[in-house]
Amino acid sequence: MDASQSNAPKSATLTIGDESWELPILNGTIGPDVIDIAKLYAQTGKFTYDPGFTSTASCESQITYIDGDEGILLYRGYPIEQLAESDFLETCYLLLYGELPTAAQKADFDYRVTRHTMVHEQMSRFFHGFRRDAHPMSVLVASVGALSAFYHDSTDISDPQQRMIASIRMIAKIPTLAAMAYKYSIGQPFVYPKNDLDYASNFLRMCFSVPCEEYKVNPILSRAIDRIFILHADHEQNASTSTVRLAGSSGANPFACIAAGIACLWGPAHGGANEAALKMLGEIGSVDRIPEFINRAKDKNDPFRLMGFGHRVYKNYDPRAKIMQRTCHEVLGELGIKDDPLLDIAVELERIALQDEYFVERKLYPNIDFYSGITLRALGFPTSMFTVLFALARTVGWIGQWKEMIEDPSQRIGRPRQLYTGATQRDYVPIARRK
Ligand code: SDX
Predict the structure, then answer these.
(1) What distance in Å separates the CA atoms of residue 136 and residue 181, rounded to the nearest whole number?
(2) Are 379 and 221 in contact (CB under 8 A)?
(3) Is the CB of 139 under 6 A from ligand 1?
(4) What's the pLDDT tens digit per position in 274-317?
(5) Residues 6+ apart with CB under 8 A from 53
(6) Residue 232: Cβ-neighbour burial (10 angstroms; 0-12, 13-18, 19+)
(7) At what angle do helices 319-334 and 369-378 cross, to 10 degrees?
(8) Given a cut of 70, is residue 3 above it in pLDDT?
(9) 134-149: per-residue pLDDT in tens?
(10) CB 158 within 8 A of CB 173
(11) What is the per-residue pLDDT for 8?
(12) Please, is 228 exposed, middle or buried when counting C-beta atoms within 10 Å of its C-beta (0-12, 13-18, 19+)?
């Protein structure tokens, strides 16, 4: 029985001094109820205050659900553990349309995405303005934003057709742009997509093939990267998705909104953690130095944190991290990498941290970024490309959440308020009279 049928209270009473107000309680299908405070300011002249949004629902959504205590992640109701065995474009279809596709729908979707994987030829000139050592994330932010300058026929967000074509274009072109950013950073020529390859194989070929020889896709590795994309596809209202929604709420075009999401994801507290986690494992350097770094992570005066550990929502093991760990072993096995010293450090670090009181009482567990770096490095990607791959996969989540917001009839521009603690009103003093 869900809360809406039980005798759960339908409202919350707020009492300030000798006044009281009834605030409606809204029920979801699963997960916490919400207290509707939309009229709070009009009724009480007060705001709520929740800087990190730890207790704030910013929107209603039907796309992804996380139970942080139980370590559950559902895309449109399907557990991530089950979807991890499907293919990424099927997950894209599910996130966009809300249902799993029939065979015919899947074939049509694959066809549509495949035939939008090329980018306008002028885009290749756009890249050449960057230094070769530019971080690929800076190139990706810029090139995705630049798509607005090329695809005017999918920027009218009031047109459902244009919203869908923009979504398809974003999903289709993000691997091409990501691969171009990588090729540019290593001074190799761009590789065009091939329509007879699946999404993940196409991406690996655009990254690792060279004109001088045929590139043979390893099916185990393309399966692994496809699964990694599925794991990263969406994750409720995380920082970058919230950024995309806020940018989209002003009516900005979808490409600009996705560029904003990429910029936010870059931070080491968010999508940049996979790059930071691998660097951290390298800095630790050996298993016997782990205690030193565990102590640093616990020291309030030391800004060091265990990258790839902890999560705002998961207070249990991130279900994606378990699948990522399994994928990591699969990839290392396929590549014949027997003893990766960084993997040994990661496994020992996880073992020690999960027994340590500091991490246990704060419910800090490995998150998706803890094992992804080792896997991506084994696949041949430099650390600077790790967050690019996260952004590639998350693009479907961003564009799906953007589309859901635009199609929500109650959607308005997002405009939070504040607790002001600055100077009270005072008069201007001309500089000649200032002491
Ligand atoms: C992602 O939101 C999403 O869904 C994100 C994501 C997605 O798919 O979109 O899941 C992807 O961003 C995963 C998280 C990747 N980031 C990292 O791995 C960076 C390391 N983790 C931390 O920075 C931190 O855990 C956060 C940012 C992930 C969560 O921060 P919160 O929720 O604000 O938690 P907090 O900083 O308030 O920490 C609570 C306590 C603090 O100690 P006390 O002040 O209570 O004594 O836990 C400690 C923190 O110091 N803590 C850590 C820690 N993470 C939290 N201590 C050491 N190492 C850590 N990693």
Answers:
(1) 5
(2) yes
(3) no
(4) 999 999 999 999 999 999 999 999 999 999 999 999 999 999 99
(5) 237, 242
(6) buried
(7) 20
(8) no
(9) 999 999 999 999 999 9
(10) no
(11) 83
(12) buried
Q: pLDDT (tens digit, 9 = 90+) per residue, 111-124?
A: 999 999 999 999 99
Q: How far apart (Å, rounded) are the C-alpha atoms in residues 106 and 198?
A: 12
- What atom in ligand 1 is closest to the CA of residue 309? 60
Using the predicted structure, report yes or no on whether residue 2 has a pLDDT greater than 90: no
Catalytic site positions: 311, 369
Tokens of 314: 């998961």
Are 72 and 319 a contacting pair, CB within 8 Å?
yes
CA of 275 to the centre of ligand 1 (A): 15
Distance 364 CA to ligand 1 centre (A): 8
Residue type, 235: H
Distance in angstroms (rounded) separating the CA atoms of residues 83 and 62: 17
Q: What percent of the chain has pLDDT over 70?
A: 99
Helix ranges restricted to H, 300-385: 319-334, 341-353, 357-361, 369-378
Q: Which runs of consecutive H residues, i.e. helices, occur in 335-366? A: 341-353, 357-361
Q: Tell me the one-letter amino acid at 427.
A: D
Tell the CATH topology of 86-409. Citrate Synthase; domain 1 (1.10.580)
Residue 360, ligand 1, Cβ within 6 A: no
Mean pLDDT of the chain: 95
- Examine domains 2-57 and 86-409 and report if their fold is the same: no
- Could you tell me if 137 and 391 are in contact, meaning their C-beta atoms sit under 8 angstroms apart? yes
Tokens of 212: 């001088």
Match 């309030």 to its residue by tokens. Answer: 300
Q: Which of 362, 369, 371 has the most ligand 1 atoms within 8 A of CB, as the residue to mutate?
A: 362
pLDDT given for residue 5 in this prediction: 55
Q: Is the CB of 115 under 6 A from ligand 1?
A: no
| Separation CA 243–CA 249 (nearest Å) | 10
Residues in the chain: 435
In 3D space, the residue among 133, 126, 119, 122 whose CA is nearest the CA of residue 187 turns out to be: 133
With residue 171 as reference, give the H or E element that holds it. Answer: helix 160-185
CATH 2.20.28.60 fits 2-57, yes or no: yes
Q: Is the pLDDT of residue 374 over 50?
A: yes
Q: Where are the domains of the chain?
A: 2-57, 86-409
User: Which pLDDT belongs to residue 1?
Assistant: 39
Whole-model pTM?
Answer: 0.95
